[in-house]
Design a protein that fits this description.
single chain; alpha+beta; 9 helices; Glutaredoxin; 5 strands
């Protein structure tokens, strides 16, 4: 076979492989679809170059200037999430968040399969994001339940405001979904990231004891000179 024919076949195979990989990437990571659709190449490059969790617009407990960040990916509407928010978070709040030593971010743990199925977990996650956008003061009292958030909107006659918010919440939700895969969290929930200003973080899986969280946080307090 002539060399140029072999070279042409190799190029075709590479193009086909690249096309398949590109299609799979779009299917797995909805945030990639969103950034391509909106032409936001800067955000797309940042997604691949900087795998740290994105925190803008996410539910926040504490002072935005607190140096240590505690980021939790929590699955909406689960007993594990409720346990973390009712047992572990109050301890973190008393020891670190209220004194201004740390801030806590709540992010949605949602797999791509659950996202594309648009089932109960997806609906709960969207509703919770809107609860933060519309009534942030009540967010953490919902204990990670989208059903409780929906009830709150219904009881207060805010269903129309919720409907208007849901579409706007989609980019943030797709970002969280993509991070769950991009950061290797499939099958792991909850996951916490503890670091300084959201960077160089240590990951902690499951619901650890408060003592383990204290040890992890202490490492960063030492870095800060405390």
């Amino acid at each position: 076979m002539r060399p140029y024919i072999v070279l042409g076949l190799i190029c075709c195979i590479l193009l086909l492989s690249g096309g398949i990989a590109y299609t799979l990437e779009l299917e797995r990571k909805p945030v990639v679809q969103h950034h391509l659709a909106t032409g936001n190449t800067k955000a797309l490059l940042q997604f691949y170059a900087q795998p740290e969790p994105q925190l803008a617009g996410r539910p926040l407990l504490g002072q935005a200037t607190a140096p240590i960040t505690i980021i939790a990916y929590l699955e909406p509407g689960t007993a594990t999430t409720q346990q973390f928010l009712t047992e572990t978070l109050p301890q973190l709040e008393a020891a670190y968040i209220t004194p201004g030593r740390a801030r806590f971010y709540y992010k949605q743990y949602l797999t791509n399969d659950a996202y594309t199925a648009a089932g109960d977990a997806y609906q709960q996650a969207r509703t919770l994001l809107c609860a933060w956008q519309l009534v942030p003061g009540s967010f953490f009292a919902l204990q990670g339940s989208g059903d409780e958030a929906l009830k709150m909107f219904t009881d207060h006659g805010q269903v129309a405001a919720l409907d208007a918010c849901l579409a706007a919440a989609e980019p943030m939700l797709s970002q969280d979904v993509s991070e769950v895969e991009h950061l290797g969290m499939i099958g792991i929930a909850p996951r916490l990231y503890i670091g300084i200003d959201g960077k160089d973080a240590t990951s902690v899986d499951g619901i650890p004891s408060f003592a383990i969280l204290q040890q992890t946080i202490r490492q960063y307090e030492v870095q800060l000179g405390e």
